[in-house]
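Notes to self after the Tuesday call (sharing in case useful).
The group wants a holo model before anyone commits to mutagenesis around the pocket. I volunteered. Ligand is zinc ion. Logging inputs and output together so the record is complete.
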Amino acid sequence: MAEAVYQQCIDARCGATYGIEQVLAACPACGDLLDVRYDWDRLPVPDSLRAFESRWASRDRPLDFSGVWRFRELLNFCDDRHKVTLGEGQTICQPNPAVAEYAGAARDGLFLQYEGLNPSGSFKDNGMVAAFSHARMVGARRVACASTGNTSASMALYAAHTGMQAIVFVGAGRIAFGKMAQALDYGAHTLEIEGDFDACMRQVKLAAERCGLYLMNSVNPFRLEGQKAIMYRVLEALHWEVPDWIIVPGGNLGNSSAFGKAFAELKELGLIDRIPRLAVINSTGADTLDRLVNQKHLTFNAGSYDRQAIAEDWQWQDQTERRASTIASAIEIARPVNAAKCLRALEVCNGVVRAVPDSEIMDAKAQVGRCGLGCEPASAASVAGLRRLIAEGVVGRNQRVVCVLTGHPLKDPDATVGYHTGRYKPGKDARGPRTFANRPVRVVDDIEQICQAIEGLGAGQ
Ligand SMILES: *Cc1c(COP(=O)(O)O)cnc(C)c1O
Ligand SMILES: [Zn+2]
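Result:
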């Protein structure tokens, strides 16, 4: 009899299945991505999402407290004794009238899902607890990832927590200091590869195979299981009402892929009656998905998608020496490993893709900060994307929208200080008007002049 939980190749023409005890970064038969799949009829699943609310009453139990594991029936691949948690997922999803106004939405129509509140300061923790639980289940001792920063910060944290050895691959000089600080502080062995993220990704896959490292990048299907929980918490915050749109920045496309899978499964289980639309936002400096979808019109085609077209795009990038370059370093990725899964999510969610320039990302980021939350540059791509989509009339002004703010503002202080002061680190110039720059005022060490400077500020709001 087949297992109730298994791994399966996403390409419908292959569809090969594997046990969940196997550690695989790709389908051994055809090289495509793998999914974790469930035979729901043989697993305990609540008949209403409301049933999860009972876990609020037992928050003293770590698995009920976790914003991932309190939905554990929806990612039911391991025993409780293997589950890893540091209390991730204590996030908020709140309306933000001021950011809504900036984006052109109705004042009560925009919700911000703030993932900066996670233990390592980004949404990556949602996925990491799931992947680390799988790693424990299979007895892994050493974990590795390529990272633009947040994956390494999160992996390093959970490796320290579980006592595993962490090896991170980062592009030399390409990682924001807040994130680098975390990897080092949590004790990860940090390899600064002389190359960009895409180079790191290529090398870590090879190294994982050769040296027997457990790979923590989002090609790991177990990681994406954890990231589904972000959408469960969004629904929970909206009293289980499905919003009209989910808007998320797109880098390696793990998050968007996980969201699509979450909604497809909830619909299949009859736990929601409709699926929200999804918008994935690239930076124009790292716009591979935008090109594949909007120029090459690639679709998932129910699992029989055009793999050759993606390979050709990668070849074209090689030939033209095209590289990703954006101040939003978390999405500075030219060869998103989850491109195919993201195409599937776009199909499931009737989704759209846009690319927004760094100047709009940084202006949106300044608005998110000024309106009382703050986020790192990549996160603000969601708000900048929403603003575009409303201007285009794709998102209606009165629709209910959730923008995912993927990471904490302290992750990348250089980008923020650069924007407000104009003093960028070399190579980090976002250019553009810096519309909301909040310039510091320099004053001599003299109380008269200090008071004059304060008078000069006006009465404030
Ligand atoms: C990783 C990351 C992203 C990109 O997410 P993907 O799942 O790779 O598309 C966006 N923002 C932040 C802050 C991140 O850390
Ligand atoms: Zn396959």
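Two things stood out.
The mean pLDDT is 96.
The domain at 92-121+224-416 is CATH 3.40.50.1100 (Rossmann fold).
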